[in-house]
Write a structure and sequence with these properties.
240 residues; alpha/beta; Rossmann fold; four-stranded parallel sheet; two-stranded parallel sheet; 14 helices; 53% helix
Length: 240
């Protein structure tokens, strides 16, 4: 499992939930301690060369594993769509080939469950009204499509309601929110308004970064609406 630096540092409960889900469906999970950041922040802000040591470390940390599962669409997209290019930029063809091999075995959580394991019902129980926000990288780069919704629909007790204008970005975009705060805030306002129209108790997504952004906006308005990562909902059972 690639935990991701944001999950590890800010919302480790998402990592724990991911492990519970994977172990429940029969997967043996390992988390190599050598793993660090995937380097997405560096590449996205114009510092691809500074990301090269991170790509090299990632390849070393995860070589030999059958599959690498990531509870993040954006980090999965970085591994698949940036790592080999960064290595080629450095003129390291061997690293580029190794990065491509790792990328081919890397899966966002919903992809791994549905496509690799063929599992849609993980035995979850979440008796709440939930709306789902499809994050930009999972939607546009990974094209996970209906996979997260298929998993959510199979959750016992859930009342899953459609989010208006679901495919619109929440406005986070990593450093975009820092460099363009006014635009980011306007986009967030639209997303929060859409969430509130659903009457949902919780907003779900597959990226902790987007959930932190949306959750912050919901909290500042005292909406009472919570956020949950897809893994957290899937990990919840009647006894836990």
């Amino acid at each position: 499992m690639f935990v991701t630096c944001l999950v590890d540092g800010v919302v480790p409960r998402v990592a724990k939930a991911t492990v519970r889900v994977l172990e429940r469906v029969g997967v043996t999970v390992d988390m190599p301690f050598q793993q660090t950041c995937c380097g997405q922040m560096h590449v996205n802000t114009g510092y691809p060369r500074e990301a090269i040591p991170l790509v090299r470390n990632h390849v070393t940390a995860f070589e030999g594993y059958d599959a690498i599962v990531v509870p993040s669409g954006s980090c999965t997209a970085a591994i698949r769509h940036q790592h080999a290019d960064v290595a080629r930029l450095a003129g390291d063809s061997a690293l580029a080939a190794a990065a491509e091999a790792i990328a081919a075995r890397t899966w966002e959580l919903s992809e791994f469950l549905v496509d690799v394991l063929g599992v849609k019902d993980v035995g979850a129980y979440f008796p709440h009204r939930v709306t789902y926000h499809p994050t930009c990288h999972s939607l546009r780069l990974l094209r996970v499509g209906q996979r997260p919704l298929q998993l959510l629909r199979a959750v016992e007790g859930i009342d899953l309601v459609e989010l208006p204008d679901a495919e619109q970005c929440c406005g986070f975009g990593g450093t975009f929110a820092l460099k363009n705060p006014a635009v980011s805030s306007a986009m967030l306002a639209d997303k929060i308004a859409a969430v509130r129209r659903t009457g949902a108790e919780y907003t779900a997504a597959g990226d902790a970064s987007c959930l932190l952004h949306i959750g912050g906006g919901l909290a500042r308005l005292s909406t009472g609406i919570g956020t949950r990562h897809l893994a957290e909902i899937l990990a919840t059972t009647r006894s836990r």
